[in-house]
Design goal:
Number of strands: 12
Order of helices and strands: EHEEHEEEHEEEEEHHHHEHH
Number of helices: 9
Largest sheet: 6 strands, mixed
Radius of gyration: 18 Å
CATH class: Alpha Beta
Distance between the termini: 47 Å
CATH topology: BirA Bifunctional Protein, domain 2
Number of domains: 1
Strand order of the largest sheet: 10-11-6-2-1-12
Low-confidence stretches: 135-139
CATH superfamily: Bira Bifunctional Protein, Domain 2
Length: 272
């Protein structure tokens, strides 16, 4: 019998709510109130999320974020900035001591990313794990999709999904972005460059490093099709069975409070 995990499709929600729900799920799992969880979600409005340790000053063009009408939120996980627009965002919440989770962060990435790998294969996309040679080149870029890290998913040598992980209260939270389409012009307008020439050079270089689902399939893939592919991908990749879960009124209130107090709070967003 495969183990049953909860599944939540929370649809499109505000940036603050999205991050608050991931944190709340981590808290509830650490308290033994819920089993491990796979969650799918989207962003309304489209949002630039920055890593927990990432500096905004001199790196992120906050005026451009506002001009585009995008949201801006700081994640509880590390890593670099991601523009969440036409994509499937996923999160995985599971105990560090779960029988299938290796103690090493890198190896835990590999286990969880097996679900993403199977999702791509369900879309007939030949994805593989990235295994960087030696140490990653430190480009100093603020853009997440510039470099694949260990066990992230690559297609034809280009990064096809970006993930970030944190471990708190004995629980792993890994969440990530699986782009269906990428607006490279908008993405690079979110970052501060010394001049337009350097920005354009960075954008062109990015095209050779990142890829989205529509590009590799050569067709327009719907969000529903992507969800179905990755739902069964996580079941197969992690050897689990998913059971739909709906938050109670009390849980919803807790998430909304956390969203308001932390993730919608400028002190949290701009503190670095």
């Amino acid at each position: 019998m495969s183990e049953t995990w909860y599944f939540i499709d929370s649809g499109h929600a505000s940036p603050a709510y999205n991050m608050a729900l991931d944190e709340a799920l981590l808290n509830w799992h650490s308290q033994g109130l819920i089993p491990p969880v796979i969650r799918f979600y989207g962003w309304e409005p489209a949002t630039l999320s920055v890593g927990y340790f990432q500096k905004l000053s001199g790196k992120i063009d906050v005026d451009a974020v506002n001009e585009y009408g995008y949201g801006l939120v700081r994640r509880p996980t590390g890593g670099r900035a991601v523009l969440h627009d036409n994509e499937l965002t996923y999160s995985v919440i599971v105990s560090e001591t779960h029988q299938s989770m290796p103690p090493s962060v890198t190896e835990a990435y590999r286990v969880i990313s097996e679900g993403i790998l199977q999702g791509f294969r369900n879309l007939d996309v030949q994805a593989d794990f990235s295994i960087p040679e030696g140490k990653l080149e430190q480009t100093g870029s603020a853009v997440c999709f510039e470099e694949p890290s260990w066990y992230e998913l690559i297609v034809e040598g280009k990064k096809a999904a970006g993930s970030a992980q944190t471990r708190q209260k004995g629980v792993i939270l890994q969440h990530g972005s699986i782009p269906i389409e990428v607006d490279e012009t908008a993405l690079f307008d979110m970052f501060i460059y010394p001049n337009e020439r350097i920005k354009e050079r960075a954008r062109k270089a990015f095209s050779g490093k990142a890829v989205a689902i529509n590009e590799v399939t050569g067709r327009e893939v719907s969000l529903d099709e992507v969800k179905k592919a990755f739902y069964s991908g996580f079941e197969k990749g992690l050897g689990i069975q998913l059971e739909p879960f709906t938050l109670t009124e009390e849980q919803l209130a807790e998430v909304n409070q956390l969203a308001e107090e932390r993730y919608a709070n400028d002190e949290w967003t701009y503190y670095r």
